[in-house]
Design a protein that fits this description.
There is one protein chain. Helix content is about 35%, strand content about 15%. Strands 2-1-3-4-6-5 form a six-stranded parallel sheet, with helices on both faces. Strands 9-8-7-10-11-12 form a six-stranded parallel sheet, sandwiched between helices. It has a six-stranded parallel sheet with strand order 15-14-16-17-19-18, with helices on both faces. The N and C termini lie far apart (about 65 Å). α16 links the parallel β14 and β15. With about 575 residues, the protein is α/β, with parallel strands linked by helices. Bound molecules: thiamine diphosphate (TPP) and magnesium ion. The site of thiamine diphosphate has 18 residues, from α16, α18 and α20. The site of magnesium ion has 8 residues, from α18.
Length: about 575
């Protein structure tokens, strides 16, 4: 069997289903193998850029707990792909990237897109070794099977992340023999082998249990690894039976039922005052599970974490900051951890008493006027982010995946929306790149078993970066609604210049764009629904129109935001105004 055929056959047998990418001279063998051998079980998804391909592979891996697969040719394609691979590394997402390279025999001789390193040549291997968990250039048939198996296993071992195989064009045609008998054929095999059973340290659990029994007001912080290890149900059951207060992090705002009395909201950037206040002023023990409590998560709370009794439980504690002075660290899979706690709780039930129910508290939306260049379009009609979110919230249960992009609109959405239980929320916190959600939604929606649509909340700036991938969704007939908050600016950066640079706004404004008009070129009205809302009532009408009549295809709802608001980020707000609900 030829090497390219071997790769495609194995990826097909693993049931990975989609190969996201753009073709080119040094990757075309892989596409030809998919054509001949994919059997409809491994399909090519032609994306508009390789960045989009890597984001889609990442979105698919996150939403479906699988291995996302993407590909690129050498040179510019490889460089575009790198953006998304870096996000997968920084957010611990299992992805496999196949990257074509100039033929071995032409390396260093001025061949097209040569990135073999050396004087004035890009070193493709060094590039990917610095942004992937595992990167290797295959240069012989002998090393192929071992390298390939390592590339598919590594994304699931330890902290998850991407693998990259660099394959020179002439190597694609090498004879590599038959698939070895023991070669993995299911994703479960890859995940299982990597998930070696960690012997739980029962002495530590005893010690934690004693402290939980003594504590009056402990707080449980749930991070994104709760979902990675499918511990949501056990974590919820534990908090509800013990009546422990719960906070989540920005990477997983829907991990715990948002309407539950025990839920205080998110901590960290765009976190809720109710969660911060309880953690700082009331809690006497912090139990953080499935999170590494990075700066984005702990933000303004760092000193509280240092002062209080802090327990951490997670499978991977890679970068856990020792300066947080954790009382104890339990290294184990969150699922195993909550199972052990629930077992204890059967014998010696915990029951925390709260004098009164505490509603989730939000920052009150605060209007801002960036003088002198921003004049309201009309004295009477103001359409703000928080008004739009209030209209969007009741429709959320209609969608299966909810993706938030970057900027003020995403921060406001994470803060103001109450996410229905069980929804998957995705956000690119690794590299924080604008436009991630627009593409990743395609990977998340592909193969969605519930057949419910996906929702994306993004800004106009993000739309202009990666919005052409919406055409990919049109081709695939995917039910995804992109709600684009159009404020004609890079709002988040304008806010920062307003606050930190005495309103000297530079490099963040542009003339009006009409997104609703632009997207009409992506397809006919039968293929793509689009509308533009200027106020709350139009927004409501159009959202209902999409869900009731058009949710079998892609849709774009442009919101013309005419009134800017301070994003609900604690460090931006001088005098916090706190309130209980929008409206
Ligand atoms: C790829 C990338 N470039 C730059 C940034 C820095 N950045 C963060 S938010 C933002 C502006 C976002 O604008 P938009 O998408 O319109 O959302 P808004 O803040 O206006 O709601 C920028 C430039 C980034 N996060 N990612
Ligand atoms: Mg904007």
């Amino acid at each position: 069997m030829k090497l390219a055929d071997a790769i495609v056959t194995c990826l097909r047998n693993l049931d990975l289903k989609y190969l996201f990418g753009v073709s080119g001279a040094n990757i075309e063998h892989i596409h030809d193998s998919v054509y001949r051998l994919g059997e409809g079980r491994l399909k090519t998804v032609m994306t508009k850029t390789e960045q989009g391909a890597a984001f889609m592979a990442d979105g698919r891996a996150r939403a479906h707990r699988t291995l996302g697969v993407c590909c690129a040719t050498s040179g510019g394609g490889m460089m575009n792909l790198a953006v998304g691979i870096a996000e997968s590394l920084a957010h611990n997402v299992p992805v496999l990237a196949l990257v074509g390279q100039t033929p071995l025999m032409l390396e260093g001789r001025g061949g097209f897109q040569d990135s073999s390193g050396g004087s004035m040549r890009v070193d493709g291997l060094a590039l990917f070794q610095s942004i992937a968990k595992y990167a290797v250039k295959i240069d012989s048939a002998d090393s192929f099977w071992q390298n390939f198996e390592t590339a598919i296993r590594t994304p699931f071992q330890g902290a998850q992340g991407p693998s990259v195989l660099l394959i020179p064009r002439d190597v694609m045609e090498l004879e590599v023999g038959d698939i070895p008998a023991q070669f993995p054929t299911t994703i479960a095999e890859l995940q299982q082998n990597a998930d070696e059973y960690t012997e739980l340290d029962h002495r530590l659990i005893d010690k934690l249990w004693q402290q939980l029994q003594q504590a009056q007001k402990p707080i449980l912080i749930l991070g994104a690894d709760i979902a990675r290890y499918q511990a949501e149900t056990l974590a919820t059951q534990f908090a509800q039976t013990t009546r422990m207060k719960v906070a989540s992090t920005l990477s997983c705002p829907s991990i715990f039922p948002n309407q539950d009395d025990h839920y205080l909201g998110m901590i960290g950037i765009a976190g809720h005052p109710s969660a911060h206040q309880y953690l700082q002023q009331e809690s006497d023990l912090i139990l953080a599970v499935g999170t590494q409590l990075r700066i984005m998560t702990r933000g303004t709370l760092t000193s509280s974490f240092k002062e209080k009794s802090l327990w951490i439980a997670n499978k991977h504690l890679g970068e856990f900051d020792p300066s947080l002075n954790a009382s104890d660290i339990i290294q184990c899979n969150p699922f195993v951890f909550f199972r052990a706690l629930l077992e204890r709780n059967q014998d010696q039930p915990l029951n925390y008493v709260h004098s009164k129910a505490k509603p989730r508290l939000y920052f009150k939306p605060k209007k801002i006027q960036y003088q002198p260049w921003q004049t309201p379009k009309s004295k009477t009609i103001h359409f703000s982010q928080s008004q739009a979110l209030q209209v969007i919230e009741p429709t959320l249960s209609y969608y299966e995946n909810i993706l938030l992009d970057a900027g003020n609109c995403a921060a406001a959405a994470a803060h103001y929306l109450a996410f229905p239980t069980g929804k998957k929320t995705l956000i690119a916190l690794g590299m924080g790149g604008m436009g991630y959600a627009i593409s990743a939604a395609i990977g998340a929606q592909l193969g969605e078993p519930s057949h419910k649509p996906t929702l994306v909340i993004c800004g106009d700036g993000a739309f202009m970066m990666t919005g052409l991938e919406i055409h990919t969704a049109v081709e695939l007939k995917l039910p995804i609604l992109w709600i684009v908050f159009n404020n004609n600016m890079h709002g988040m950066c304008v806010t920062r210049q307003h606050l930190y640079f005495e309103t000297r706004i530079e490099g963040n404004l542009y003339s009006q764009i009409n997104i609703h008009e632009i997207v009409k070129g992506f397809g006919s009205s039968n293929q793509l629904w689009s509308a533009c809302a200027n106020n709350t009532s139009e927004c409501e009408t159009y959202l209902n129109q999409y869900t009731q009549e058009h949710a079998n295809k892609p849709g774009i709802l442009e919101l013309k935001i005419s009134q800017e608001e301070m994003p609900p980020i604690e460090s931006f707000i001088v005098q916090p105004l706190i309130f209980a609900r929008l409206g």
